[in-house]
């Protein structure tokens, strides 16, 4: 339990909420991937799928998962360090401590729709708008990759062990927007010095008087285009 607490692994114990989460995506005749099924609080509501893959880090749950979900492909591994199979639908109650790297890995995969439960602080970041303290590289990349909609918040007492923060459920749908290959690296440079003006970060006069967090996504893409024309990463 101490290891799971350190990783921020909390089990949803309200079946009404679990069913509502899963019902927000259509799994019928789809290839479904769930990260972190634990004791199957979400898994038991995933129905009519074509294939179901469960990636679980804690090997103590393997016997339970194999007994209760015999049709699923079960992989006991760290989801950050294993190759994910093809999937069309993504479902996860993400461990708090690794939610950001999981989201980064998620945006590198091509799928149709997903539903994630993450700590509210991270949800606020990925949904953030320019001119706010939460607007960041993570916000921009997630908003480029996905159309996102907040479904609802979950209070701490709906989990065991009880976390100290609220959680948020977000539905994701794939965007078809073009993302330049090095754009993420460019954002890392900008937002590592987010309080500085653009000209003092990359010696660029275009939007030079602005700070990175003050530009919207289209403006940041245009800034990247101009920067990349004169400098190689």
Indicate the low-confidence ranges by residue numbers. 1-8
**Mean pLDDT across every amino acid position:** 93
Judged by helices, strands and strand pairing, the structural class is alpha/beta
Radius of gyration: 19 Å
CATH topology of the largest domain: the name is Rossmann fold
Write out the strand line-up for the largest beta sheet, numbering strands in chain order: 4-3-2-5-6-9-7
Number of strands: 9
Q: What kind of assembly state do the chains in view correspond to?
A: single chain
What is the string of helix and strand elements?
Answer: HEHEEHEEHEHHEEEHHH
Number of continuous helical runs: 9
| Tally of separate domains | 2
The backbone outline, from C-alpha atoms, is elongated
**Biggest β-sheet: count, sense, barrel?**
7 strands, mixed
What is the CATH domain class of the largest domain? Alpha Beta
CATH superfamily of the largest domain: Vaccinia Virus protein VP39
């Amino acid at each position: 339990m101490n290891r799971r607490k350190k990783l921020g692994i909390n089990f949803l114990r309200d079946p009404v909420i679990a069913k509502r989460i899963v019902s927000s995506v259509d799994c019928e005749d789809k290839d479904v991937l769930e990260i972190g099924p634990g004791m199957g609080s979400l898994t038991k509501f995933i129905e009519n799928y074509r294939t179901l893959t469960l990636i679980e880090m804690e090997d103590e749950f393997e016997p339970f998962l194999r007994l209760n979900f015999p049709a699923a492909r079960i992989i006991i591994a760290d989801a950050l360090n294993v190759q994910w199979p093809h999937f069309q639908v993504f479902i996860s109650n993400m461990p708090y401590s690794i939610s950001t790297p999981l989201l980064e890995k998620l945006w590198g995969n091509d799928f149709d729709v997903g539903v994630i439960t993450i700590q509210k602080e991270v949800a606020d970041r990925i949904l953030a708008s320019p001119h706010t303290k939460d607007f960041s590289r993570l916000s921009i990349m997630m908003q480029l990759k996905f159309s996102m909609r907040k479904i609802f918040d979950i209070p701490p007492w709906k989990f065991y062990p009880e976390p100290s923060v609220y959680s948020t459920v977000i539905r994701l749908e794939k965007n078809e927007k073009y993302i330049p290959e090095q754009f993420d690296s460019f954002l890392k440079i900008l937002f590592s010095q987010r309080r500085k003006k653009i000209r003092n970060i990359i010696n660029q006069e275009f939007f030079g008087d602005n700070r990175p967090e003050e530009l919207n996504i289209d403006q940041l893409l245009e800034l990247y285009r101009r920067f990349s024309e004169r400098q190689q990463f």
